[in-house]
Amino acid sequence: MGSSIDTQSQAYYKKQYAEAKPDTQNKVTYTIQKGDNLWSIAREKLNKKDVKNSEIQDMMYQIAKLNSFDTLEKANNLEINNVIYLPSSSDSQSAVHSGSDTKKVRDSKTTAAEINKILEPEGMNYFDTMRYKQKHIDSVPVELYTENGKAGINYWADMLNKDSKLFFQKSYSSSPTKPSGLVITKKENDFPYGKTQANLLVQVDDNGKFKKVAFNTPDVKMHSIQFDYELDSNGNLKRPSNAYGGMEVLDKMKKEEYQQFVQALQKHVDEQIN
Q1: Residue 3: what pLDDT?
Q2: Torsions phi, psi of 190, nearest 5?
Q3: 3-state secondary structure labels for all residues of the chain
Q4: Can you tell me the distance from the alpha carbon of 238 to that of 261, in angstroms, rounded to the nearest whole number?
Q5: Number of CB atoms found within 10 A of residue 101's CB
Q6: pTM higher than 0.85, yes or no?
Q7: pLDDT tier at 232, thresholds 50, 70, 90
Q8: Contact 234, 255 (CB under 8 A)
Q9: Does 248 score more than 70 pLDDT?
Q10: For strand 210-215 and strand 196-204, is the pairing parallel, antiparallel, or unpaired?
Q11: Contacts from 13-19 at CB under 8 Å and sequence distance 24+?
């Protein structure tokens, strides 16, 4: 009987796999984390309350098709740290816009205010608010999260390119004497001991050249011990996907905008640590 059930499962999987029709032109990358399977990845990708099992199953087979997991064995043997493709959007999920999208990004104050309404209920003390955020971070729609990240990039590009009062601190990782990066902070009213508006950490390679940057957008902080966003050397805008350092791609910057942003960062790196 066991063999018969296995054969039936294989046949069902192949049928669903064949019928899946993911958008192969618009996709994002995802790094496999400990405990992941196609079902859990699909459910997280949909990112909606009261999601139906049929929706998760449909997304699961779209992911399988995108990655040529054409057998149950391939689908059930995901390896930690391997990178796979996910659909960039779905009918049941807020669209994650591609870098070629011409939709105007709203300013950081507007997007931050909307996020704070979701994550910071009135009347809570600081510690209750932190706990509430941890439990409800997935309640922030993907589109809003992405838009806030884009607004953050615009904010930091403006701060880095104009004569703004910024505070700099070298960061170290493997070597106690050679800086591995630079922390850049914007304070309210440009006062050294004032409230922090936003932080940015640019990491460099052994030659002092841009590697990646992690940052927060002003007026909101969604993750208590992590930066809310990361921009890698390929121009991918990412967000934390779990507490173990996993990152999920949200969008990709246009090449020209990305290069201008990196040049502005590199200028400050060269002035401060190179």
Answers
A1: 42
A2: 60, 25
A3: CHHHHHHHHHHHHHHHHHHCCCCCCCEEEEECCCCCCHHHHHHHHHCCCCCCHHHHHHHHHHHHHHCCCCCHHHHCCCCCCCEEEEECCCCCCCCCCCCCCCCCCCCHHHHHHHHHHHHCCCCCCHHHHHHHHHHHHHHCCHHHHHHHHHHHHHHHHHHHHCCCCCEEEEECCCCCCCCCEEEEEEEHHHCCCCCEEEEEEEEECCCCCEEEEEECCCCCCCCCCCCCEEECCCCEEEEECCCCCCEEEEEECCHHHHHHHHHHHHHHHHHHCC
A4: 16
A5: 13
A6: no
A7: very high
A8: no
A9: yes
A10: antiparallel
A11: 13/71, 13/72, 13/75, 14/70, 14/71, 16/57, 16/61, 17/61, 17/64, 17/65, 17/69, 17/70, 19/61
Tokens matching residue 95: 């669209």
Query: What token pair was written down for 13?
Result: 């999987």
Structure tokens at 8: 């039936």
**What's the distance, CA 183 to chain centroid?**
20
- What does the block give as tokens for 80? 């930690």
Alpha carbon distance 234, 219 (integer Å): 27
Average pLDDT score over residue span 141-170 = 89
**Selection from 23-27, 173-177, 199-203 with the highest mean pLDDT:** 199-203
Domains, the chain: 2-87 (3.10.350), 108-272 (no CATH)
Give the tens place of pLDDT for each residue, 6-49: 677 788 888 889 999 888 877 888 888 888 889 889 888 888 77
Rounded distance, CA 160 to CA 266, Å?
A: 10
45-54, 147-156, 212-221, range with the lowest pLDDT: 45-54
Tens of pLDDT along 46-62?
A: 887 777 888 888 999 99
